Amino acid sequence: MSQVNIQLDTSAIDRVRNELGEFEKKTPIVLKAAINSTARKARTQLVKAARSTYIISSNELKQSMEYRKPTTRNLTAKIVVRGHIRDLMKYKVTPNSPPQKGSKIPRNTKAKVLRKNPMRPLIKNGIKAFVTQFKSGHIAVAQRVTKNRLPIATLYSTSIPKMFSSGGTVMESALPEIEKMYGDEISKQLEKAIERMRK
Fold first, then answer.
1. Under 8 Å between Cβ of 90 and 80
2. H helices within the chain, ranges in order?
3. What DSSP character marks residue 98?
4. What is the rounded average pLDDT of the residues 40-48?
5. Fewest CB within 10 A of the end CB: N or C in the chain?
6. C-alpha pair distances (Å), 145 with each of 46, 67, 111
């Protein structure tokens, strides 16, 4: 599991209080609205950043995310990312299906997880990986554990929560934009609150 928190800082509190003046009691309401709106937009930004780094669909990323709203008592929005280690087959693999009976077996099975990387042959200790279909019907990239025919092991790669780990490429790409969104949303919500109070 990985978690992204959108929360206030003291400078934001001071800014909102100062601009609200005599209506400073409305500060938690303004901040809650700003954090809530920022977090919803941040989810979209995180999906965009992950897709620009990894070969993965938007739907799969969105389905892994759980959103927890802020309250006036707890001014923190949370985007919780859940998921297990992913089958390598879910990334880009060629060939992407087992060879048909009687067809030519490809020289190498290649794969890549990151968009920026080239397709690389999957070979470890001289043993080549291959695409196979198990009795259950599941298609996977597999590799023999030894030079013997059996056993074979399914190959896995990065889980979705790992994509959003602190200090990783995705977070480094997304955070500056999210921070800008937060500042813009505070200005927007302040403007709305002040306009309402003038009526």
1. no
2. 10-20, 27-53, 58-63, 160-163, 169-198
3. P
4. 95
5. C
6. 37, 41, 19
pLDDT at residue 4, as a whole number: 85
Where do the domains of the chain lie? 2-84+159-198, 86-157
Tokens of 77: 């929005």
Has residue 33 got a pLDDT over 90?
yes
Helix axes 169-198, 10-20, angle to 10 degrees: 20
pLDDT in tens, 152-191: 999 999 999 999 987 789 999 999 999 999 999 999 999 9
Distance CA 199, CA 197 (A): 5
Nearest 5°: CA angle at 156, between 150 and 162? 160
Q: Taking 80 as the threshold, does the pLDDT of residue 199 lie above it?
A: no
Looking at residue 182, its amino acid is: Y
| Cβ-Cβ contacts under 8 Å for 115 (sequence gap 6 or more) | 52, 53, 54, 55
SS3 192: helix
Q: Which residues pair with 127 in a beta bridge?
A: 124
The CA-atom distances, in angstroms, between 34 and each of 65, 74, 92, 113, 188 are 20, 13, 38, 35, 8
